[in-house]
Amino acid sequence: METWDTIRSRRNVRVFEDRPVGAADLERILEAARRTPSASNRQRWDFVVVTDREALQRLAGVWRGAGHVAGSAATIALIAPMADDPHVRESIHYDLGQATMSIMLAAADAGIGSGHAAVESQTLARQILGFPEDRFCAWLIALGYPADRPLRPVRTPDRRAWDEVVHRERW
Ligand SMILES: Cc1cc2nc3c(=O)[nH]c(=O)nc-3n(C[C@H](O)[C@H](O)[C@H](O)COP(=O)(O)O)c2cc1C
Predict the structure, then answer these.
(1) For ligand 1, atom 6, which residue shows the shortest CA distance?
(2) What are the phi and psi torsion angles at 144 (to 5°)?
């Protein structure tokens, strides 16, 4: 897809076709995640990719807004170190946000839908994914071919008005 079309086509997809994402596409999506910029290039992240249906169904239980993970073709769990310092925490989340967008745009570029999910139960996430005690699962990103409608540029995005959010030179 052309870059501008990719940016405009990405939207949260929560219903997926029952077909796998090809290995090459999944690899490209993970490589996009790995290439994400991060503060001081610290790369405080690990990516656990899950494709096993039973595991995906269990993973959907980590948060009431994670139901769409169950029917995804693959879900990438973003794992990060726990941090007490609020500045470090903020910086980790900034980096994870960028990794999320890299994943989502690489997916959209291949016609693959993606949907965020927050994680409430770290205990359940840890049981399923097996990450160490000093890490937490920050977000899940569900992937798969959209079952509602294919990805194409969204004409009228549900966003605040241009003039309300764009400030030129000064607020
Ligand atoms: C930090 C963050 C957390 C989110 N958590 C969830 C979630 O737990 N479950 C969900 O269905 N969507 C979640 N979303 C998706 C947002 O609701 C969605 O991005 C927003 O409504 C805009 O819609 P769009 O992505 O289709 O443009 C999350 C998005 C972000 C950025």
Answers:
(1) 117
(2) 165, 170
